[in-house]
Structures are given as structure tokens and as C-alpha cells.
Amino acid sequence: MTGAAEAFPQAVADAPEFTLNRGSWSRVVLQGTSVLLHYEPDQIEIERRRRTGPAAITSPDALRVLLDLPVNAPLPLSAVERAASDALHRLPNGAIHMDQGCVTRLAVPPIKACLAVVPTRSWRVGLERAGRFAPFCARAMLLSAPPRDLDVLRMEADFYGIGVIVDADGESHVMVPPAPFELRRFTAASWLFLEEAYQQINLLPARV
């Protein structure tokens, strides 16, 4: 499966069924499984973090506090609840700026996740593992050979919105295109997913 996984990004780039913007591919471990992640980096945020920190913010509590703050807009500390105000002082360096009784959120997600692809030999396992990424991005599975019950797979995958790519004999074929991802609500869990991916992509130590 390793060879198929490495060849996959170019196959997707050439497939008309996929509408991915320019971005990058990385192999990461997220949601307890190894995936090929297509993502778009936020170069401005990445460069800001390289200058001032933080590397990756992997504390759910810190992300919840940050989500309650507007981006690049000073907020009077008097408007922040007491518990959140205390938590501000525990945030990583560079995540916020505090001055003259106001706090300004600087940190934003460093990447945008576009597509998570799960290499698997069993499409039923692929459905379960790819399904873990439903709250975060579009999903697909990569099979090394077409299954005998391909029609059943197509029906199941289409129902769940999970793409199916079969890489056989050095050629990749899109059997089912992934459903477009619709973000209904960006939560601390959504942000944590991106930070954990960023941490692995950049091989940076976590800061909490």
C-alpha cells in the first residue's frame, strides 16, 4: 500500500472528479489512523508563528479561550469573563497581545484541511476510518485493488460522502468522488485537528 499511497497525490491532481485548490500533501496520524492529508497553509500565520511563537497550540482549553476572542480586534479585559481572563495569562506566547487593559487575539489556524485520504485494504475498514474525519474535511479511501463487491462499495461510499480511489497496476482510478465538505460550526475540536496536523507536518514541539 505504501507505493500506492505515495503515487496518490499526482493521481488526484490529474483526476477531474477532484476540485482541490493548490496545496500540499503530508502523511500524518490523526484520529487514531494514518492518512494522506491535503491542506492549504496560511503562510502569513506560519511566518508569524516562526517569528513570535507559538509552534502548535494543542491545549483544548487554550483553543476554547482563543475562539471566544475576535481576531486582530482589541477587546477590553472588562468584557472578558473572570474564568477566561485568568486563562489568558496561561496562553502560549504569541497567541494574544495584551496592552492598556485590552486583549487582542493574534493566533489563527495555521492550515486549512481539504481532504483526508485513508489507505486501506478493506473498504469497510476504510469507511469507518474515513468517517472519523467527517467534522473536519472531505474524505476518501485509497484501495490497492478493486473489491469484488464494487457496486456495494459505491453505494455505501456515496451514501456517506466518502470518495473511493483504486490504485491497481500503477494506475489510479476514482470510483466515487468525495462529497464537498461543508463546515457548519468551527469548534475547539476543529481547531485542535488543524494544530495536530500542523505539528506533525512541521515537526515542531507542542506548546500549551
First-last Cα distance: 36 Å
Beta-strand proportion: 25-35%
Biggest sheet, open or closed, and with what strands and sense?
6 strands, mixed
Unreliable runs: 203-208
Tally of helical runs: 7
Radius of gyration: 20 Å
List the domain count as a whole number.
2
The mean pLDDT is: 87
- Can you give the helix content as a percent range? 25-40%
Number of strands: 11
The H-and-E topology, N to C, reads as: HEEHEHEHEEEHEHEEHE
Q: State the secondary-structure class.
A: alpha/beta
Q: Biggest sheet: strands side by side, in what order? A: 1-2-7-8-9-10
Write down the overall geometry: elongated
What is shown here, in short?
The chain has 208 residues and is of the alpha/beta class.
Walk me through this protein's architecture:
α6 links the parallel β8 and β9. The chain is an alpha/beta fold and 208 residues long. The strands form 3 sheets. Strands 1-2-7-8-9-10 form a 6-stranded mixed β-sheet, with helices on both faces. Strands 4-6-5 form a 3-stranded antiparallel β-sheet, with no helix packed on it. Strands 3-11 form a two-stranded parallel ribbon. It folds into 2 domains: 106 residues, no CATH class; 54 residues, no CATH class. The C terminus is likely disordered. The radius of gyration is 20 Å and the shape is elongated.
